Amino acid sequence: MTEDVRVYVEEAPGQRREIVGPTDMGLSLMELLKANEYDIQATCGGMALCGTCHIEVLAGPALDEPSDDELAMLESLPVMSQGSRLSCQIRLTERLDGLVLRLMPQTT
Ligand code: FES
């Protein structure tokens, strides 16, 4: 049976949209967001090189620590917050269930 995971995108303060994705296809959170029509360029194709898939985690389960490559990319971005992550570096697994995030502004 396919396990689905639910994440919530805060589109405006107090306004969250639930999106649901499969955990058995090896997708990243970036790919799920793109599949749900969010405007993410992902020009590097998920290699932690472009920064256009930048999100901010607002609440939910603890995630694995970012890799050195992810951290280096995040630190090069003009805006970074404590919850900043590259959504291409986050695998869609059941551990993400209940994650709340928002898209960070694109500055490139
Ligand atoms: S898609 Fe380029 S850094 Fe994530």
UniProtKB/TrEMBL annotation:
Belongs to the adrenodoxin/putidaredoxin family. Residues 3-107 form the 2Fe-2S ferredoxin-type domain. PROSITE patterns: 2FE2S_FER_2 (PS51085). The keyword Nucleotide-binding does not apply. It comes from Hymenobacter duratus. Its cofactor is [2Fe-2S] cluster. InterPro entries: 2Fe-2S_ferredoxin-like_sf, 2Fe-2S_ferredoxin-type, Adrenodoxin-like, Beta-grasp_dom_sf. This is 2Fe-2S iron-sulfur cluster binding domain-containing protein. Pfam families: Fer2.
